Every structure is written in C-alpha cells, then in structure tokens.
C-alpha cells in the first residue's frame, strides 16, 4: 500500500549509507577500509530476451550487486519486483555484508533480482525468465563465489530453476558439486528442511528473547504485520503459537483488522491460492491503509519492503517494539523519531538473520553431501540466533546504545579486523 524507496524522499541506499557512516564515525573505522566498504565491489547489469507465451519477445533487466567478500563468498537473495534497480540492489547487498558478518558466517554480501511484476507473467514465462537470467549471469554466480537465495517474489521453485540451469552448464561429472550455487531450494532437490521457516523463526525468536530480557513473555502481546509472505507468515505463526495475538495485516492489496485476533492459518489458506494476497479474507475487515502503523498494539513487524517507516508515519506508531523482518524498513528520519519515542527497534541485520543462517546450513549440507533433519536444523538455528542476539544485547548494555548501532559496531568491526589481520591496511 505504501510504495518503496523511489517515492520516498530517501532511497534505501541513502538509508544504508547513513547507518554505515554513523558507525564508521563511532568506531573510528580505518579510512581505507571505510572507502572500500562505502563502495560495492561489482555491479552486474544484464539485459536478456525471453519469448512470452504469446510468441512475442520481451527484454528484461536483471541485477546482481556484490558488495564485499572480505569474509567469504558473496551471499544474498534475488528479488523479482518493479522497484528492483541498481541502487536498491546496492543497498540490499550492503545489508547482506553487515548481516553475514554479524552472524559470524563465512560470507560476504550480495543481492540482485529482476525489475518486473511477477503477477503479470505465467508460471512457464517465469521459468523461462529465470533460466535466461541465470545464463546471462553466467559465472558471476557460483557455489564458492556468489550464492543467491530467495527474497521478495522468489521462492524454492525459483531456486530450483536456477540450480538446474547453472548445473546444466557444467560437465556431467561436475554437476552434483554445483548444487550449492543457490540456497533455499526445495527439499528433495538439495534444499534444507526448515529453510522455508528460518527467517520467520528468527524474527519470532529475537522478539521472544527481547521480551524475556525484560522479564516478560509473549502471552497476551498484540502485534501487527506488514507483508504476509514468507517472513510475515512464518513470524506470525510462531508468535501466535506462543500466545501473541495478530491484530492486523497489510499487504500490497489490502489492510485487514480483527481486534479479536486473526487466524494465521486461515489467512494463509485464503492467501496461498491468490498469489499470496490477503484481500477478500472474511476473518477480518478491511481498514484504511494509512491508519495501519498507528494501530494500538505492543509490537509492529514490517515484513515487506524497504523505507516504510519514515518521518511521515513514524510519529503515529504506538507499538513499543518494532521488529524488522524486512530489510531496511526504517529510514534514518523514521528511526530518529522512533528512538525519541522510546521504541526499541530490533534491526533487520539481527531480526531477519535466521534466513541466511539457514542458507548457510543448506550450503554446508550440499557441500558435505549430508541430509539434515528438521529437528537438528531448528536446534542449530536456535543456538546460533541466540548467540548473535546475546552478542548484540551485550553491546547494547556496554555502550548504552540502541540495537542497530550495537549490531553495526559488531558487524563492521569484524570486517575491519579481517582486513587488518591480512595486513592490507596499516
Ligand atoms: N525470504 C527470506 O528468507 C528473507 C526475506 N527478508 C526480507 O523480508 C521481506 C519480505 O520478504 P519475503 O517474505 O521473502 O517476500 P514475499 O514475496 O514472500 O512476501 C512479500 C510480502 O510483502 C507484501 N508487500 C509487497 N509490497 C507491499 C507494499 N507496498 N505494502 C505492503 N505490503 C507489501 C507482499 O504483498 P503482495 O502479496 O500483496 O504483493 C507480500 O505479502 C523483504 O524485505 C525481504 O528482503 C529478509 C531476510 C530473509
Ligand atoms: O538466505 C540467504 O542467502 C539470503 C537471504 C536474504 O536475501 C536476506 O537475508 O536478506
């Protein structure tokens, strides 16, 4: 309902650079490392033709931005959305670098996608578009070089097409060694049990841990969620199973409210066959989209696009906690207002890091020829997320600062240490 970056005064790229510069000043980051991290390593733009169902040829533009690989291969999702452009991909790639570093994963950061609205294409057109995009990217991706994953409007099926296309470019004997060129694949094609819910689980767990650190729990807490896709659905499911109540949901087509609580499973059943849209759900009523952020609730979860919380709406927010399931949902001005209002923001690079941690497990599973069971995955995920949360929480306490600043200090300091240890910069 609210549109992304371009229509806002600040772009996502402005938002991430602002966050980075603030931290670089705070930690007195080595000036050479600062110059490197303020730029992206590679910005790949490909144009490729695809034959549509009606026989006509359409030309698409795809992007892959590789921000930094000081800590390991580039890692990050692919987004299919009309707002995808090089600036959006640059911002999202930078967030991946901070996120993988914060989580202590042996990865750098990348992001990309195609500028299109998938609703305008049939499934077979989307398959052909994805396969041609993969060919066009060529060796710019690879299992030890740059490993894509799902993001907005892409899913396990998209990843299966990419893996299949990429592997088909290899000799028969090398194919199986290339399965980990993407993560988030379907279980049965090298995918990891639990990767589907990993991001939403991380969102839930970080919220739960925050409340626990204050001697509270989720029982009786009310929340609202923007975006009811992979992240919004799974986060809502885990939260309601632990006693919280979902009051309102917003997607690109509707904003729904039910003060008695919305059934997450019923809403999911309703939305799945409708290409994800929640519109028309009878277990809630439609409300004005502009009133969504101002609803009385304990917790707000933006789980859709970037730059949604801005100077125009932040002052309306009543929730005491904002848990960033989405990447970059709060711009610099929005954040300033929230902090002044005493709102705790669980920052994206911590809150939604369960996804890339799950991807790391899938990558290891494929690399080592193993099959991990769901219980094992969820236990490992929980342990890792708790560890990352604790690190940030300690930094918050030590520095007496907000959660994003604390998370950025850890993430950027780790990259600085790596460059320094390698002796590149005195
Ligand atoms: N998938 C993952 O593992 C991870 C995702 N993220 C981030 O989480 C966010 C959501 O990703 P994911 O759940 O995978 O994406 P999905 O494509 O599964 O879902 C996106 C959701 O956002 C909604 N949405 C899109 N545009 C708007 C808008 N203008 N206003 C309100 N709602 C809107 C969509 O509604 P509709 O269906 O009507 O278009 C849909 O409900 C993104 O920021 C992504 O980068 C972060 C880490 C990992
Ligand atoms: O799973 C991954 O590799 C990355 C997921 C992603 O795009 C993100 O965390 O924003």
TrEMBL record:
Site (Important for catalysis): 151
Annotated residues for binding of NAD(+): 199, 230
Domain Glutamate/phenylalanine/leucine/valine/L-tryptophan dehydrogenase C-terminal: start-end pairs: 192-423
Keywords from the UniProt entry: Coiled coil, NAD, Nucleotide-binding, Oxidoreductase
Coiled coil regions, renumbered to chain: 364-398
Keyword Coiled coil attached: yes
Alphabetized Pfam families for the sequence: ELFV_dehydrog (PF00208), ELFV_dehydrog_N (PF02812)
SMART domains: ELFV_dehydrog
Keyword Zinc carried by entry: no
One BP annotation, GO: L-glutamate catabolic process
Molecular-function GO term, any one: nucleotide binding
Catalytic center residues: 111 (proton donor)
Family annotation (CDD domains): NAD_bind_1_Glu_DH (cd01076)
Endpoints of the signal sequence: none
Positions contributing to substrate binding: 75, 99, 359
Gene3D superfamilies (alphabetical): Leucine Dehydrogenase, chain A, domain 1 (3.40.50.10860), NAD(P)-binding Rossmann-like Domain (3.40.50.720)
InterPro entries noted in UniProt: Aminoacid_DH-like_N_sf, Glu/Leu/Phe/Val/Trp_DH, Glu/Leu/Phe/Val/Trp_DH_C, Glu/Leu/Phe/Val/Trp_DH_dimer, Glu/Leu/Phe/Val_DH_AS, Glu_DH, NAD(P)-bd_dom_sf, NAD_bind_Glu_DH
Family of the protein in this entry: Belongs to the Glu/Leu/Phe/Val dehydrogenases family.
Name the record gives this protein: Glutamate dehydrogenase
Organism (species): Salinimicrobium marinum
């Amino acid at each position: 309902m609210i549109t992304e970056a371009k229509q806002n005064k600040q772009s996502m790229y402005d938002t991430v650079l602002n966050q980075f510069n603030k931290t670089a000043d705070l930690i007195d980051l080595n000036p050479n490392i600062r110059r490197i991290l303020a730029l992206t390593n590679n910005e790949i733009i490909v144009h490729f033709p695809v034959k549509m169902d009606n026989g006509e040829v359409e030309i698409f533009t795809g992007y892959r931005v590789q921000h930094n690989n000081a800590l390991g291969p580039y890692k990050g999702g692919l987004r299919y959305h009309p707002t995808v452009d090089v600036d959006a991909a640059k911002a999202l790639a930078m967030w991946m670098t901070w996120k993988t570093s914060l989580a202590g994963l042996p990865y750098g950061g990348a992001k990309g996608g195609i500028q299109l609205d998938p609703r305008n294409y049939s499934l077979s057109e989307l398959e052909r578009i994805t396969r041609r995009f993969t060919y066009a990217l060529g060796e710019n991706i690879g299992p030890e070089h740059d490993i894509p994953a799902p993001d907005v409007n892409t899913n396990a099926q998209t990843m299966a097409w990419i893996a299949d296309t990429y592997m088909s470019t290899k000799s028969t004997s090398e194919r199986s060694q290339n399965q980990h060129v993407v993560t988030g694949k379907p279980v049965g094609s090298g995918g990891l049990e639990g990767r589907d819910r990993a991001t939403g689980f991380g969102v839930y767990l970080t919220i739960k841990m925050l409340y626990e650190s204050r001697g509270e729990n989720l029982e009786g807490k009310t929340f609202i969620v923007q975006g009811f896709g992979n992240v919004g659905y799974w986060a809502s499911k885990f939260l309601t199973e632990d006693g919280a109540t979902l009051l309102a949901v917003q997607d690109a087509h509707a904003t729904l409210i039910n003060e008695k609580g919305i059934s997450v499973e019923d809403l999911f059943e309703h939305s799945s066959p409708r290409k994800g849209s929640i519109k028309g759900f009878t277990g809630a009523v439609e409300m004005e989209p502009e009133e969504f952020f101002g609803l009385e609730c304990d917790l707000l979860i933006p789980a859709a696009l970037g730059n949604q919380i801005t100077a125009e709406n932040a002052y309306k927010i009543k929730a005491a906690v904002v848990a960033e399931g989405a990447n970059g949902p709060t711009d610099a001005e929005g954040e300033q207002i929230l902090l002044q209002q005493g709102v705790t923001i669980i920052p994206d690079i911590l809150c939604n890091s369960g996804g890339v941690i799950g991807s790391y497990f899938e990558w290891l599973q494929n690399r080592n020829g193993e099959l991990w069971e769901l219980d094992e995955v969820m236990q490992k995920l929980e342990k890792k997320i708790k560890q990352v949360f604790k690190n940030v929480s300690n930094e918050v306490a030590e520095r007496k600062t907000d959660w994003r600043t604390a998370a950025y200090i850890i993430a950027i300091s780790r990259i600085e240490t790596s460059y320094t240890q390698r002796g590149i910069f005195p």
